[in-house]
From TrEMBL:
Its EC number is 5.1.3.32. GO terms for biological process: rhamnose catabolic process. It comes from Microbacterium natoriense. It comes from the Bacteria. The lineage of its organism: Bacteria, Bacillati, Actinomycetota, Actinomycetes, Micrococcales. Pfam families: rhaM. One of its GO terms (molecular function) is L-rhamnose mutarotase activity. Keywords: Isomerase. This is L-rhamnose mutarotase.
Length: 121
């Protein structure tokens, strides 16, 4: 039985490049989309604030394997090389250097815990 990992991360986009950053994602290269899917990442979204704060989210059954797959991908290396100039204070490839945020609340998990307690009473 596999457990789905929910991964969220934050990066800062250079304010002067916000419009270009948005344009580069409409659409993303088809071959890059295929590599993301092949890595095992799904339900992947990016959210961008007017101040350049970028929050990303995806789900995967094995994040280490997904990271390794993308790290070995020539397509992902090309994409990340082109995208790296958009970010403030980032060393390395954006897909590898973004630190994940810690999940502090999950509605489904808490509702499930309540249901489990209720069922055992």
């Amino acid at each position: 039985m596999s457990t789905t990992s929910r991964v969220c991360f934050r990066l800062q986009v250079r304010p002067e490049l916000l419009d270009e950053y948005r344009a580069r994602h409409c659409p993303v290269w088809p071959e890059m989309l295929a590599e993301i899917a092949a890595s095992g990442r799904r339900n992947y979204s990016l959210f961008l604030g007017d101040d350049g704060m970028l929050v990303g989210y995806y789900e995967t059954d094995d994040d280490a394997a997904a990271q390794a797959y993308l790290a070995a991908s020539e397509t992902a290396a090309r994409w990340e090389s082109e995208m790296s100039r958009f970010f403030v204070d980032l060393t390395g490839r954006p897909d590898q250097a973004a630190a994940p945020l810690i999940e502090v609340f999950n509605l489904a998990a808490q509702l499930s815990a309540i249901d489990t307690i209720t069922e055992s009473e």
